[in-house]
Amino acid sequence: MKVSTLGHALLGLLSAQPMTGYDLTAAFDQSLANVWSARHSQIYPELAKLVGAGLIEQTEAGPRGSKRYAATAAGEAEVRHWLQGRAPGDALRSERLLRVFFLWMLRPADAAAYLRAEAVRHREQVARYESVGNEIPVERHPADRWGRIALEAGIRYENTMAEWALWAADEIEGGGPVPVT
Amino acid sequence: MKVSTLGHALLGLLSAQPMTGYDLTAAFDQSLANVWSARHSQIYPELAKLVGAGLIEQTEAGPRGSKRYAATAAGEAEVRHWLQGRAPGDALRSERLLRVFFLWMLRPADAAAYLRAEAVRHREQVARYESVGNEIPVERHPADRWGRIALEAGIRYENTMAEWALWAADEIEGGGPVPVT
DNA sequence: ATCTTACATGTCGAATTTGACATGTCAAGA
DNA sequence: TCTTGACATGTCAAATTCGACATGTAAGAT
Q1: Which end of chain A is more exposed for a tag (fewer CB within 10 A), N or C?
Q2: Which nucleotide is closest to the Cα of B65 by its C1'?
């Protein structure tokens, strides 16, 4: 039984705490949004699949026809196995970075403007992350601590990209014709 | 006529220089690999689609049944339009970062070991990038200069992640039980 | 009482992406 | 001459992802 990345993400979330599909969707929109995304239309079928595989189970039926799931022992084992296996998808996918390869097609001033706007967006993201950081409860579950650690990665990433974008903008505007030594 | 991200990437590459599907596949395996990936099985059909849309055209038929394509004026205009439109897919997708959210499921020592191994992988990537940097010709096409700029983003990114991973490993191993105030 | 919003789950078709299968050419070295 | 590896293009089924459509409940405000 092979489990997709989405499956592993759901399994991981449900190992920390039992949740409904709605809660999981919210988790993908909030904390996980910046590393992996999924819509509810993908989440619900995946939950059914995981139940079928015996990796999660429904633990409770709530108010609005809601169903709460938790990872089974087999499910938790699967996550641990995934965590320790060699990273297969170590590839990063980012349309924003892809665009940089083609900025040479714009006039230098436009490209520089684009990069400075990117820097602003990255800084804004840092601000959002920092406000999220202030909302994380003071360590109730180990997952919270790891949430902070992942957040730190996000903050460092955004700051690095913001600095890079400003550097690149200067490089392009100031650079002028290439010094061919 | 809507063009996918892959389509825009192909259009951008073919605006810099006419290439065959094989060349494009190589470009996705090399320079673009770290921001967007595509297999030849996706590239060839997409080329046919772009030809149909009048965004690229075959300019030459080579030795082994090879077909060289170049972007048309409409194709170049499409790339410029894409570059200037508001970033839709500003979401980053990384299975490696996703895993971090679930490292709490491992024993602290194992999680720290995982992070230190990550740091090593990031450093190795920096080394690879730097050796690629030495192979870029000295500015023959503006795209080369942008290649360097994109490379710089990659180098800064990997260095940041390597530093973060080491910091996180220390944080976990040193941190001990949570100070509950 | 009605309205709005958040909660909650699902399906379906289309687009995207992957991996396997399939085929053939050309150049260089053994 | 033969074999290997790089060059070169394609198809197909399956998996993944997305966006739209569809439906219904519970709580709180007006």
Answers
A1: C
A2: D8
